[in-house]
Amino acid sequence: MNGAESLVQTLVKGGVDTCFANPGTSEMHFVAALDRVGGMRCVLTLFEGVASGAADGYGRMTDKPAATLLHLGPGLGNALANLHNARKARTPLVNIVGDHAVHHRSYDAPLTSDVEGVARPMSDWVRTSTDARYVADDGADAVAAALSAPGGVATLILPADTAWNDATGVAAPRPVKPAGIVDAAAVSAAAKALRSGEPTLIFLGGRALRAAPLDVASRIAAATGAKLLAPSSNPRMERGAGRAPIRRLPYPLQLALQELSAFKHIILVGVQQPVAFFAYPGMPSLIAPPGSSTHVLASPAEDCVDALARLASELNAPGRAALVPPQAPAALPAGKITVESIGAAIAALIPEGAIVVDEGISCGRAIYPASFSAPPHDWLQLNGGSIGIGMPLATGAAIACPGRKVISLQADGSGMYTLQALWTQARETLDVTTIIFSNRSYASLEGELINVGALNPGKTARAMLDIGSPDLDWVKLAGGMGVEGARAETAERLIDLLQASLRRSGPFLIEVMV
Amino acid sequence: MNGAESLVQTLVKGGVDTCFANPGTSEMHFVAALDRVGGMRCVLTLFEGVASGAADGYGRMTDKPAATLLHLGPGLGNALANLHNARKARTPLVNIVGDHAVHHRSYDAPLTSDVEGVARPMSDWVRTSTDARYVADDGADAVAAALSAPGGVATLILPADTAWNDATGVAAPRPVKPAGIVDAAAVSAAAKALRSGEPTLIFLGGRALRAAPLDVASRIAAATGAKLLAPSSNPRMERGAGRAPIRRLPYPLQLALQELSAFKHIILVGVQQPVAFFAYPGMPSLIAPPGSSTHVLASPAEDCVDALARLASELNAPGRAALVPPQAPAALPAGKITVESIGAAIAALIPEGAIVVDEGISCGRAIYPASFSAPPHDWLQLNGGSIGIGMPLATGAAIACPGRKVISLQADGSGMYTLQALWTQARETLDVTTIIFSNRSYASLEGELINVGALNPGKTARAMLDIGSPDLDWVKLAGGMGVEGARAETAERLIDLLQASLRRSGPFLIEVMV
């Protein structure tokens, strides 16, 4: 058994059954081992940012790590932007990055680089294997690091000789650090704030946005008059009819400040304090109003499910929350396409169990509020701010959840960063319907120019926001990668295409002109 | 004057007149300053790897830095792979990377990351501006660092507040460290080897592959019987009729070892010692035969033009070298498309002054030998091993050299990494003819599986080399980004399309089925 085989067997034994790969020469032994070992599905991508974003989508849906397989420092570099997103989402993920054989590194061959240096900024755990005999142990440690609370990105660098030399065996899974149990004092402090009679916000993020803890939070809110709110972007929300509804903090800072202005207490559950996405001249970074008190019920690394249950018990919160009623049959939109009519169409047609991936950016923000009472579904967002995750995330979610429809809401500018994901969707016949919001601009930046005080933008500045010269044609782009697509210029056509694509299997792309 | 304006003025004063940009919120002040200052062309790309690759192409053709404009850690992450290539090519290049305002960094907003950490592995110089009053000085230092011998990647991180706060003025260009003058002893040692009567190789790279030094090297070879050879991949070669010809070291290690096996002396000019691209089990990393002597005439940071002139003078090398005669009219190829017929067609049709960008990988290696006697042209290669540079490099070269035709030889697998470059070619109406070698596989890896000893690849391993399921359609992909294209399945059709595209202005893409 060589090092690569011992590593693949160790990963499989640790529950890693999927690998998103962009291999090169240094990773050929790992690839060859996949055939000899079995138990791991290997999915080829045409760009590493697709691999890392897909592994994030897989991890968000399964709560266990997928592997990526990347080629030296530059291959890892291409994966970084979506690893940044995965890290901010606290998704368990294991990168396997090939490197030159140890004896070859000192010669500064063309692909030589500081792979650990590239890995460190976007990884929670980094190690370079030094010997084929230790690769299995390193792999088991990587899986445990990825799974340890609150979940993270583990990067294992695999020099080629540690893959091809003889190994000693397979390593058993290592203990995983579980989510911490919060102190009784934290529960009491939150209960005290909730009993104070002063306006109190329960701010929930991360794992607290799954259906069960959200239901508990909703009961606490009902018992105490507190409000619930989620961050404007979240890794995964379980929502829809029969679940507790939760609004999100508005993205524009001015609106966010206004939203929180009246609260005296902010209780954090599984999330950091709310902060501005960007800094703006003369504006605060913190969104909580001055003079308010912030109480950490559960940090992202702590068990928010247990903490909420204990808090509910301390408060004698009722056994049932106000849940979203099943959807009333709504009239389907017609006529001109607007962000509102897209929202209404999607809300009406989301199938039960669907996974909605939202990288709609400026267009996407209107879709969420329209779909509160749609059949139960998951909602995944770009939550690390690095655009270009939508289509990879949809790809990984579809691999993770066969049998569930994925609806990928994609802004055109962001979509261009990782459009290669469509090819993998075609290759793997994934049930992904992509809706491209084709506004032909970096529309979100138009407001930001003003927000940062860069007033009276000239021709050059305006050109930097305009991606409509020349126009992108997403139906052709999709067709070039084997994904069928069509353009919708009316709400009726969008509805027809959406219904048809949800009935069939395999990927489909709808370019919506907005 | 704010910090952004002082920086743009400083860059323009330092000779930086082109910026390849992917801006976001944090860079809006820099973008706005471009309108108020003037003198810098700002070229939008749809992905940061296009920006960094284009800046590399610009720098290779002008020997001065272009700027990139990138958005925080993830934006820089997307640029890394081609910055790796630029660094290995020793291209002068200045990255401007926006970051959160200094006071906002501690709040861990979604886009917060260790930007310096991301920059360091692929930069020769890194600095974060800390105050708008010092931004101009930092910019001048960055330009000087990029231009200092042997040329390098300088990364200046620009927190948003250092762009929007008041600055103190513009900084004058800083002194640039020139290429070192080699010791007399190095010239004497090389001369002694060349006079020894033993088989001697002059191995030339970097700036030594421009027409003038190559001519001198060729005279030295004529006077001494030495052989000339270049690395298998090079940043820029000036070649063609009327110039000294030079062959390249074969890429396959076995052939490279054979090529050098008889030499007793290897003289390095502007380049490191020849090393294997990858390590292979049981194979050496160094290509020079054991027992041979290596003599450094000029390192990459030293003045190889001066060193070669002094060596020629010491050896009384003749005043004229054996140059490539002008091309004899050759019959154009016909019939089935092969790598050879593509080479013959391109060799016959390269216009004088053309810039050929070669990321043909397994197909590209056959094109170079066919075109020795074509009209004078430049030949740019992927020389850092990180695939996905071809189309960005062609984009930057075309911006740098208006009026010269660019022929972009592009392997299909590599092209998919940065296909967004085509959109910028259309937007800027660049004279780039792209030829896609559509073999629908990572063909170069087929040999590498065997070379590394990963024998009898199974179904999974073979699937990782196959990008033909589904087939990519490059004509559709190009059309989706506003670039007209057509497919060639015979040599006659290729020739027709090539001739037509070279006659017109603006980009065109030819997908060649090989």
SSE order and pairing:
Two copies of one chain form a homodimer.
Chain A: H1 3-13, E1 18-21, H2 28-37, E2 41-44, H3 48-62, E3 66-71, H4 72-89, E4 93-99, H5 115-119, E5 125-128, H6 135-147, E6 153-159, H7 160-164, H8 184-195, E7 200-204, H9 211-224, E8 227-229, E9 237-239, H10 253-260, E10 265-269, E11 293-298, H11 304-314, H12 339-349, E12 355-359, H13 361-364, H14 367-370, E13 377-381, H15 390-400, E14 406-411, H16 412-415, H17 421-427, E15 432-438, H18 443-451, H19 459-463, H20 474-480, E16 484-488, H21 491-503, E17 508-513
Parallel strand pairs in A: 1-2, 1-3, 3-4, 4-6, 5-6, 7-8, 7-10, 10-11, 12-13, 12-14, 14-15, 15-17, 16-17
Antiparallel strand pairs in A: 9-13
Helix pairs in contact in A: 1-2, 1-6, 3-4, 3-15, 8-11, 9-11, 12-21
* Major beta sheet summary of chain A: 7 strands, mixed
Q: What oligomeric arrangement do these chains adopt?
A: homodimer
**Count of runs of 4 or more consecutive helical residues of chain A:** 21
Number of domains of chain A: 3
Describe this structure in words.
Two copies of one chain form a homodimer. The first copy, chain A, has three domains: 3-164, Rossmann fold (3-Layer(aba) Sandwich), CATH 3.40.50.970; 184-314, TPP-binding domain (Rossmann fold); 339-513, 3-Layer(aba) Sandwich (Rossmann fold). The first copy, chain A, is built from 21 helices and 17 strands. Chain A has helices at 3-13, 28-37, 48-62, 72-89, 115-119, 135-147, 160-164, 184-195, 211-224, 253-260, 304-314, 339-349, 361-364, 367-370, 390-400, 412-415, 421-427, 443-451, 459-463, 474-480, 491-503, and strands spanning 18-21, 41-44, 66-71, 93-99, 125-128, 153-159, 200-204, 227-229, 237-239, 265-269, 293-298, 355-359, 377-381, 406-411, 432-438, 484-488, 508-513. In chain A, the strands form three sheets. The first copy, chain A, has a seven-stranded mixed β-sheet, sandwiched between helices. A six-stranded parallel β-sheet of chain A has the order 2-1-3-4-6-5, sandwiched between helices. The radius of gyration of chain A is 24 Å and the shape is globular. Chains A and B meet through helix 2, helix 4, helix 5, helix 7 and helix 17 of A and helix 2, helix 4, helix 5, helix 7 and helix 17 of B.
